[in-house]
Amino acid sequence: MPEGDTIHRAAAQLRGALAGKRVVKVEVRRDPRGRRGVEPGATVTEVVAQGKHLLIHFDDGHVLHTHMQLTGAWQVYAPGERWRRPAHTARVVLEVEGGTTAVCFAAPLVELRTENARDVTHAANAIAALGPDLCLDAPDLDAVLARVARLDPATELALVLLDQRVAAGIGNVYKSEVCWAEKVWPFTPIGALADATRRRMYATAHRQLRANLGTKRRVTYQGGLAVYGKAGRLCPRCRTRIVRRGGRDDERVTYWCPTCQPEP
After folding, report:
1. Is 227 exposed, middle or buried (0-12, 13-18, 19+ CB in 10 A)?
2. Which end of the chain, N or C, is more open, meaning fewer C-beta atoms within 10 Å of its C-beta?
3. 3-state secondary structure of 166
4. Which of these is catalytic: 9, 52, 230, 244?
5. Is 21 a catalytic site residue?
6. Contact at 8 Å (CB) between 178 and 161?
7. Rounded to 5 degrees, what are φ and ψ at 193?
8. pTM: predicted TM-score of the whole model, two decimal places
9. b/e string for 67-100 if b means 16 or more Cβ within 10 A?
10. Under DSSP, is residue 168 helix (H, G, I), strand (E, B) or coil?
11. β-strand 90-96 against 44-50: which pairing, if any?
């Protein structure tokens, strides 16, 4: 699961390359809806990230909606530059005036739709269901806590943090890093946490995500990460060996320090 800061950085790169420019072509490959595409001459008006969804808006009323999940990536190429991924994995090829080309590779969700109220799709509904985006400047943490309060109190904290309907942006990395920063066992039932603790978790996630919007290397603690990806290494706070639950390819792999974050 990608982190929200990754998608916001991709949106910023695409915005700089595409916004305000006329389209030469937009090729959406394997679009299950098979709808008519964006016509040459349309202009890219906006590129935005909403949670972990990336949307490109055009002045002809179309919006291109992509979700990277575990495999997808957007890349921008100068005129004549060789693609760094296999061409057969390209899901979207978007060329603008001047020859700049943006290519979306291997994204599981790619949808071109119009922005009118009648063109409601599953992907559009997924965005409507998102909680406040923690990558934004001032997310509504009261709204986040209200959504948490509606969950089954037995739900593990780690699952709640990943739930994009509660708050958008947290993936496995920040889930582990936030729990470590707040010294909370990741599998604590959410009902066992005080409201103040819940708020601190999301405030810390917001702070960490915002701090990494403009960086290439993700940093949450002294130049790097504290626990994520470091099973068997020493906790930087107490020197206990970090442990992991879930396999390396598990979408919900979690890392924590059993001393700093003891099971209640």
Report:
1. buried
2. C
3. coil
4. 52
5. no
6. yes
7. -100, 135
8. 0.86
9. bbeeebbbbbbeeeeeeeeeeebbbbbbbbeeeb
10. strand
11. unpaired
